[in-house]
Amino acid sequence: MAVSDGSKLRSAELMDQMAKHLETGAGEELKKKIGLVYQINVSPKKIGIDEESYVVDLKNAKVSKGPCKEKPDATFSFVDGDFMAVAMGKMNPQMAFIRGKMKIKGSMSAAQKFTPEIFPKPSKL
């Protein structure tokens, strides 16, 4: 079953690709390099409204839909288009934060390790 099942967000497709990416050797590499758990909340139009939550677990190299069962190292909140822009490297994460396009809760040092480089290069999104 895909992580994106039942979602209308473009970000959900990226989360599917991320799940497949983590099943490859890249997952092992990210476990060693980062080894943190992130929750990503994505909303269609306004942060905090009708959001979908995803857990990107870089301790166990997996992605799941729904809120994190334990406290994540950092939680990010985005609007769908802004998340896609950051994940694809079209928007600088620091600028997204400064402009209010990304909200962060939790460890700032953990948040700084969550960069576009951890995402697979999109095929057709």
Automatic annotation (TrEMBL):
Taxonomically, which superkingdom? Answer: Eukaryota
Name a GO CC annotation attached to this entry: cytosol
Q: Name one Pfam family in it.
A: SCP2
Q: Which residues form the SCP2 domain?
A: 25-115
PANTHER family listed in its UniProt record? SCP2 STEROL-BINDING DOMAIN-CONTAINING PROTEIN 1, STEROL CARRIER PROTEIN 2 SCP-2 FAMILY PROTEIN
Q: Could you tell me what this protein is called?
A: SCP2 domain-containing protein
Q: Which organism is it from?
A: Selaginella moellendorffii
- Lineage of origin: Eukaryota, Viridiplantae, Streptophyta, Embryophyta, Tracheophyta
